[in-house]
Amino acid sequence: MPRIKSAKKRVEVTERNRERNRSWKAAVRTAATQVEKSADDKKAGQTALTSAYSVIDRAVSKGILHKNTAARKKSQLAKKIAP
C-alpha cells in the first residue's frame, strides 16, 4: 500500500478508471452478442449492428478502445450480418 499521498490518490483514480473501462468493455461485448443472436433476422440484425457501432464508437471516443480495434470489431460484426 502506498504511503505517499499522491500515490494513494493514483490508486483511487486507477481503480475508478478500471471500473469505468470494465463497464464499457462489457457493453461492447453485449452489443456484439446481440448482433450475433439477431444475425438470422435481417431487419433485427441491422438494428443491432447500428447500435453496436454506436457503442463501439463511443468507447473509442472515451479512450477505452483503440480505433483499429474498433474498426476490426465493426468489420467482424458486419461480416456476420452480411449474407
Describe the 3D structure.
The chain has 83 residues and is mostly helical. The protein has a single domain, classed as Methane Monooxygenase Hydroxylase, Chain G, domain 1 (Up-down Bundle). Helices cover 82% and strands 0% of the residues. The chain is built from three helices and no strands. It has helices spanning 5-37, 42-61, 67-81. Helix 1 (5-37) runs antiparallel to helix 2 (42-61) and helix 2 packs antiparallel against helix 3 (67-81).
Key attributes of the depicted protein:
83 residues, Methane Monooxygenase Hydroxylase, Chain G, domain 1, mainly alpha
Which secondary structure elements does this structure contain, and how are they paired or packed?
Layout (H helix, E strand, L loop, with lengths): L4 H33 L4 H20 L5 H15 L2
Estimated radius of gyration? 17 Å
Largest beta-sheet details: none
Could you say which overall geometry the principal axes of the C-alpha atoms support?
elongated
Enumerate the spans where pLDDT stays under 50 for 5 or more consecutive residues: none
Proportion of strand residues: under 5%
- Count, helices: 3
Q: Structural class from helices and strands?
A: mainly alpha
**Mean pLDDT metric:** 95
For the terminal residues, how far apart are their CA atoms? 54 Å
Number of strands: 0
Q: What's the order of the H and E elements?
A: HHH
Q: What is the CATH C level class, in words?
A: Mainly Alpha
Q: Helical amount among residues, as a percent range? A: over 70%
Number of domains: 1
CATH topology label: Methane Monooxygenase Hydroxylase, Chain G, domain 1
The assigned CATH architecture is: Up-down Bundle
